[in-house]
Design a protein that fits this description.
This protein is an alpha+beta fold. It contains five helices and six strands; from the N terminus they run H-H-H-E-E-E-E-E-E-H-H.
């Protein structure tokens, strides 16, 4: 370090009120953490889950639903909500297939689902229907599915007919 640089560093340290001994012996001053303002809920906020409620992701989505004879029907894959968000209209359950292959979606009104607390306190879901009954019902089509079908049909109708081999 040059003499000029050393003098500049010393002058800066003195301007900041640091002595050579203080710079060598004490770590930089630690500020006490700022006191945090208390948290205040906003109107309509739910801070704690009530005992008479369930969480869709935790208690319903991907949970297995059983028939009256305890046979597995399928798993809940989605909930159908009203557009105003004030009610759950139904649920979608994946029925049939193996590891998701060949599975079809069936939607039912929420009152068809029975939710009870099991022996170990976990939520148990059941229905008064069998897997075979649900396998013989129409597949649920979401608005997204219907739109995709419309687009595919429109594309098919816009394509010119393919020439038959051997014709010009």
């Amino acid at each position: 370090m040059t003499l000029r640089t050393a003098v500049s560093v010393t002058a800066l340290a003195m301007a900041l009120g640091l002595t050579p001994q203080a710079m060598a012996q004490t770590p930089p001053a630690q500020r006490p953490p700022a006191a945090e303002a208390p948290k205040v809920p906003v109107e309509g906020q739910i801070v704690v889950q009530e005992p008479n409620t369930v969480l869709a992701k935790q208690d319903l989505i991907a949970q297995t639903v059983y028939a009256p004879d305890k046979a597995k029907i399928g798993s809940i894959s989605d909930l159908i909500l009203s557009k105003d968000g004030k009610s759950v209209e139904g649920f979608v359950i994946g029925v049939g297939g193996f590891l998701g292959i060949g599975e079809k979606s069936v939607a039912l009104k929420l009152d068809k689902l029975k939710m009870v607390s099991g022996a170990n306190g976990a939520m148990e879901l059941s229905m008064d229907m069998t897997k075979d009954e649900l396998s013989n019902t129409p597949t649920f089509k979401s608005r997204k599915d219907i739109e995709a079908e419309k687009v595919a049909e429109q594309r098919r109708s816009e394509q010119p007919p393919r020439p038959t081999p051997g014709t010009k």
